[in-house]
Structures are given as structure tokens and as C-alpha cells.
Amino acid sequence: MNKFEYENCNGGTTSGVFKIYQARNGSIQLLMGNRNIELSKEQIDKLSISLYDLIDFDDCDYNNYYLNRLPERCMKEYKFKITGGFNIGQKLIEEPAHDGSIVGFKLPDGSIARPCICLEIEDTNGEFKYVTAETEMSSLGFEGLDYDDTSFLAID
Fold this sequence. Notes:
Elements lengths: L1 E6 L5 E10 L5 E5 L2 E4 L2 H6 L12 H9 L25 E4 L5 E5 L5 E2 L5 E4 L5 E4 L2 H6 L17
Antiparallel strand pairs: 1-2, 2-3, 3-4, 5-6, 6-7, 8-9
């Protein structure tokens, strides 16, 4: 514990002990006497708190809490596998890629339907929404989207 002392508004002094530590949620806390205060990133910067000198400091938790992002080294890579198929109407025209693979189908209005990667989010009420933009996926903690193939394979 560290000690503090300052002049108060009554002309006297106030003194006690304080501790700066990282909470389990990643935030930096100031315990002063019997009061606990969560510090903002700006306060941490202005006070020039040496974060790496804090006991059990975890920069992954800090970055996640204050910056809402994790460095790559704090993440674990997962591969995903999605397989399946559609029965596709014979009037739809195959949309070939440069290598001849089928990457989509031309719809009657001229638009093209292609398979894509998305996240299905089920809320606590059992309702679903679909996230298709990488930026929104990243804001949810799914970073570095990498996939090898989104094509159709005709089955004879």
C-alpha cells in the first residue's frame, strides 16, 4: 500500500493509504481509504501510471476493457467449417469465376446470388440477427476473417 496526505478544505490534513490495481474486468482501480474509483483511460494517461508495474497486470484485459479490442497475440484462432447445399432452379444461370468454378447464380432481375460468411446472433429473447460486415464482426470480437472458398459445386 502507498500513503497519501493532502490539505483539506477545513484547513487540516487528510491522510491514508491507497492502492492502484487492475480489476478482473480489465479496468484500473484506485482504492483510496475505503473508497474505490474506476479510472478512465485519460486519468491513467494523465497520472502516468506505469501499468506494467501493477501486480498481475494483464494487457489483454486492459486493451479489451479500454480500447474494446484485443491484440492478435491475445486471441485464439478458430477454424470454421460450413458444408451443405441447395437445390437450385434450372432457370438460374451459373456465374463462373476466372478458374471456372461456380461462384454464384444470376437471378431473373440480373442480380447475382453468392454464398457468403456471416454470424448468426441469437439474443436472450431467442430472436436472430445476421452480421455480414467484417467491421461489425470485429466489434463483437471476431477479428481477422479468413476463408478459402465460397463457391458452388455441381453434384451430378
